[in-house]
Amino acid sequence: MLPTSTIRSLALQAFDGWDIPNGIDPPPSAGYLEQARRGANRLKYPTARLLIQPTGRYNCHGQVFGNRRTNIPPAQVPDAVDVDELLGKDGYRRIDGDPDVGDLVVYRAANGAIDHAGIVVRLEKVEPTSKVRIPYIWSTWGGMGEYEHHVAHTPYGDQVEYWRHP
Amino acid sequence: VNGESYLSETQMQDGAFLLLSSSSLDRYARMANLLAQPILGRLREEPDSANRAVERSRRLLQELLLAGTRDLPEVELAALLAALSQTGIREVGKLLDEVGLLDAAPVLWISALARRLRQARVTTVSMNVHPFVEATRSAHLLKYDFRNSTARQPEEVPRRAIEFVV
Questions:
Q1: Nearest CA-CA distance, residue A36 and chain B, Å
Q2: Interchain CB contact of B18 with A (< 8 Å)
Q3: Does B110 contact A at CB distance below 8 Å?
Q4: In terms of pLDDT, which residue wins out, A131 or B133?
């Protein structure tokens, strides 16, 4: 007999009352994670610092919109959530200027799809006298765990956008 | 899984990272397509190897279902499905249908990938749109959407190779 999905979901709503499809997955196998870590090490993300060990429990959108409690969207229906739509339903607005701590960062692929999201946790000056500040992000890399990283040091999309709660 | 892998150890590690770090089906499918490139090259060089690739996919699938959670065979299987979906082998449609219907925790991502690949799979079949233009012998490879067609006269519809999902 084939194993069936063990995924369960939480009652979770956006600010406007929309039920957000979500699901809690079992963790990936230790062997899968080990190979993935080797891949990550070879691909090199110099500032990425692992904060929380990998889990199947939540992904990047689950961290940002679900408070680290569930995966958004659920693996069973991975195209069930349009994150652009979710940003609107939660009342986020895109900002044009520099980000601030607490803003949400969104990574888009070349085709416009949202690949990843995280939260700005600190801004670091390039040098003491510089006005340019580099955002550092707290985000969950799918099933690979939580990282803090330079905004550009991720395996995700080409374009970066910042969004803010009103 | 016994037998020769279609991916090198390095490709497996990079692939494990790229797939496991995906939070959206769109990215997952793009990563699977990246991993599929070396396999596609091999399928082109050895056209007879496609049936072996289908067979290996089925073995990897069984292995994955027995694992009980997301596990390493997912990487090669995702790459194989993405590569095979770009071939015209009838057996591949059947395989994608089977995988797409599975609802078990270890294969939820693979299953969603199979559904997406199935949806996108096109086979080019040359057909006569109208015997009036048979003499033109101009078979063009293009997508022809009848629903949006404004052609009213047979002359306006050359013989085309129609792409449709099989």
A1: 4
A2: yes
A3: no
A4: A131
Backbone angles phi, psi at B74, to 5 degrees: -55, -35
C-alpha to C-alpha distance for B126 and B139, rounded to whole angstroms: 7
Q: How far apart are CA B77 and CA B62, in angstroms?
A: 11
pLDDT (mean) for B32-38: 96
Residues of chain A with Cβ-Cβ distance to B106 below 8 Å are 3
The SS3 call for residue B160 is strand
Does A80 contact B at CB distance below 8 Å? Answer: no
Distance separating alpha carbons of residues B165 and B23, to the nearest angstrom = 27
Stated pTM of the model = 0.83
ipTM attached to this prediction:
0.91
Sheet bearing A93-95, strands edge to edge: A49-52, A146-150, A133-140, A114-125, A104-108, A159-164, A93-95
Contact B103/A38, CB-based, under 8 Å?
no
Give the pLDDT mean for A89-111.
95
Give the model confidence (pLDDT) of B111-135 as tens digits: 999 999 998 885 443 333 333 333 3
Please check whether residue B109 touches A, CB under 8 A: yes
| Contact list, A114 vs chain B (CB under 8 Å) | 24
Please indicate if any CB of chain A lies within 8 Å of the CB of B103. Answer: yes
